[in-house]
Design goal:
Elements: E1 9-10, H1 13-26, E2 37-41, H2 45-52, E3 55-61, E4 64-73, E5 76-83, E6 88-90, E7 111-122, E8 125-138, E9 141-142, H3 148-170, E10 181-184, H4 193-203, E11 208-215, E12 223-231, E13 238-245, E14 271-278, E15 281-287, H5 292-300, E16 309-314, E17 320-322, H6 342-353, H7 358-363, H8 365-409
Parallel strand pairs: 2-12, 8-10
Antiparallel strand pairs: 1-6, 3-11, 4-5, 4-7, 5-6, 7-8, 8-9, 11-12, 13-14, 13-16, 14-15, 16-17
Helix pairs in contact: 2-8
Length: about 425
């Protein structure tokens, strides 16, 4: 499935800077960089995490991650997609009605949702959709301090429902004029792993490269979030490097030329894989293993290679190889400004060395379910106990007030007048 390009018109720097400041203020941040949360790679220790805390499970969509910012220009609503590079793209012809307006004219502003653009394969062709999996701000109020389940509930009720009422129920014919359709990304219990692998993933209409577990008990975290767990099959557990081409071998002299030999641009150079340490500090991590066939593929795309971010995996022999896209070409991450940071690289390496397989996940499915159900039962028992305690306190208060009221009715009356005379 092809990876979509971000639709719309890229904002110039002054306008983008203005929006970055607006978004930071809306979210209560001083930092103007991309505010989106980033997952950590799933390691064996995270099996215990799933047994001790409540998580949502969803498929990891192979699309373009971006935030969607709802704002206004005077009386007109406007919308911008924000990519990982923190660039802003104006997307016209979007409308997100508010729930309280039966005319569907009122619209949301000061709203930021998190999601992924993806192509779905339908019978009549590819459909561009935006899959929402989180909500950072809603109508001028940051939601990041709320738990995930609360954030999603607000989004579904206040944004998704009125949008569906308008574009799915009342005027479905208008959807074809939208730049993309809005979809709420389905969240499941963390223990339905067999169903996810056997039924859900095979039925997907778009690309998928793993699973995402997101803790439902925690607030939204800007940057790396240790409570968002990214599981990938071994061959999908990758690192994004910056590719640096070394010198090309010299052309073999034929004995008739003078001067230094020219480089042979048809021959393979060295390929350095570099990782990000601090601003401006890139260091060589490993060499990219490139076969003759790989090199022919790299040359065939007729594009710049040096300096680009390339997604790589570690093969069974311990060599770093580039990941192929759907067309069989190197998967360059042009949606990213930087390669993975050393801290991310170390976590991915831990995940590779301590890999959790599909079989491992399914083997722990029942234990995750039992722990989840136990916490659920404990919460229900605690809720019932607290309700009973509250009821008891209300009854005690009512009785005290009743006794106090009876006493007040007899204020000033001699005690013997209140004593029932003996027969």
């Amino acid at each position: 499935m092809p990876i979509p390009e971000i639709p719309g018109v890229k904002a110039d720097k002054p306008l983008a800077d203005q929006f970055r400041a607006e978004v930071a203020q809306l979210l209560g941040r001083k930092n103007l960089n991309f505010p989106g949360a980033q997952p950590v790679s799933f390691a064996r220790k995270h099996l215990r995490e799933l047994m001790e805390h409540d998580y949502y499970l969803c498929e990891k969509t192979d699309g373009i991650r971006c935030l969607l910012y709802f704002t206004n220009d005077g009386p007109q609503e406007i919308h911008y997609l924000i990519d990982r590079k923190n660039d802003y793209y104006y997307v016209p012809h979007l409308h997100f009605p508010r729930p309280e307006d039966p005319t569907f004219q009122a619209f949301h502003t000061g709203t930021i949702v998190d999601g992924e653009l993806v192509y779905d394969q339908e019978a009549d062709g590819l459909k561009l959709r935006y899959l929402v999996f989180d909500c950072l701000a809603l109508d001028g109020k940051s939601q990041t301090d709320r738990q995930l389940d609360k954030r999603l509930a607000y989004f579904k009720e206040l944004v998704m429902k009125p949008w569906s009422d308008l574009f799915v129920k009342k005027h479905p014919e208008e959807r074809k004029f939208l730049p993309f359709e809005l979809v709420f990304k389905e969240m499941s219990f963390p223990y339905v792993l067999s169903w996810m692998f056997d039924i859900k993933l095979p039925e997907l209409k778009h690309g998928n490269d793993g699973l995402i577990f997101t803790c439902k008990e925690t607030p939204y975290v800007f940057g790396t979030d240790e409570k968002i767990l990214k599981w990938k099959p071994a061959h999908e557990n990758t690192i994004d490097f910056r590719l640096r081409l070394g010198e090309f071998p010299p052309l073999i002299a034929n004995g008739n030329s003078a001067g230094p030999p020219e480089p042979d641009y048809d021959a393979k150079p060295e390929f350095d894989l570099m990782i990000f340490h601090t601003k401006g500090d890139y260091r060589v991590f490993a060499q990219l293993h490139v076969t003759d066939e790989d090199w022919e593929i790299m040359k065939s795309i007729n594009q710049q290679l040096d300096g680009r971010i390339i997604e790589c995996y570690k093969d069974a022999q311990g060599n770093w190889r580039f990941k192929h896209d759907d067309a069989g070409k190197p998967h360059f991450r042009d949606d990213k400004n930087e390669a993975n940071h050393i801290s991310t690289v170390e976590k991915v390496l831990d995940s590779i060395d301590d890999a959790v397989s599909k079989t491992d996940l399914i083997r722990n499915e029942q234990r995750i379910r039992e722990a989840f159900k136990k916490r659920q039962a404990e919460r229900e028992n605690r809720r019932k106990y607290e309700e009973a305690q509250a009821h008891r306190l209300r009854e005690e208060k009512r009785k005290r007030e009743s006794l106090s009221s009876d006493g007040a009715a007899h204020n000033g009356e001699p005690a013997d007048k209140r004593i029932r005379p003996e027969a």
